[in-house]
């Protein structure tokens, strides 16, 4: 490709799901929707988010109450 000046190139973007091999699972969609709902209420901290997930009865891995450690580990696992 020729040297095209950067201002003439289309803007770059990232499709956040472009690396997925499969569509999101029902659990992933539920958790994602719950997290987005928490942010819409103004929640900004991890302790608030974890409390909100528990208050809304969002299922966690294994069915226990969400903890900060569990949430962080689950986000790490889902992002791998």
Describe the fold and architecture.
The protein has helices spanning 26-40, 46-55, 68-79. The protein is an all-alpha fold. It has a domain at 44-80. The mean pLDDT is 88.
What is the percentage of strand-forming residues? Answer: under 5%
Quick one: biggest sheet?
A: none
- List how many beta strands DSSP finds: 0
Fraction in helix: 40-55%
Task: Extract low-pLDDT stretches.
Answer: none
Q: Write the element-wise H/E pattern from the N-terminal end onward.
A: HHH
Distance between the termini: 33 Å
**Alpha-beta classification:** mainly alpha
Number of continuous helical runs: 3
Oligomer: single chain
Mean pLDDT: 88
Radius of gyration: 18 Å
Apparent shape: elongated
Helices and strands in order, then pairings?
Layout: H1 26-40, H2 46-55, H3 68-79
Quick recap of the structure?
The chain is mostly helical. It contains three helices and no strands. It has a domain of 37 residues.
Attribute tags:
80 residues, mainly alpha, 0% strand
């Amino acid at each position: 490709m020729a040297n095209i000046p950067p201002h003439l190139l289309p803007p770059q973007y990232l499709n956040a799901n472009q690396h997925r091999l499969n569509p999101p699972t029902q659990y992933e969609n539920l958790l994602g929707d719950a997290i987005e709902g928490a942010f819409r209420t103004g929640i900004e901290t991890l302790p608030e988010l974890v409390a909100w997930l528990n208050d809304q009865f969002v299922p966690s891995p294994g069915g226990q109450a969400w903890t900060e450690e569990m949430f962080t580990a689950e986000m790490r696992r889902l992002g791998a």
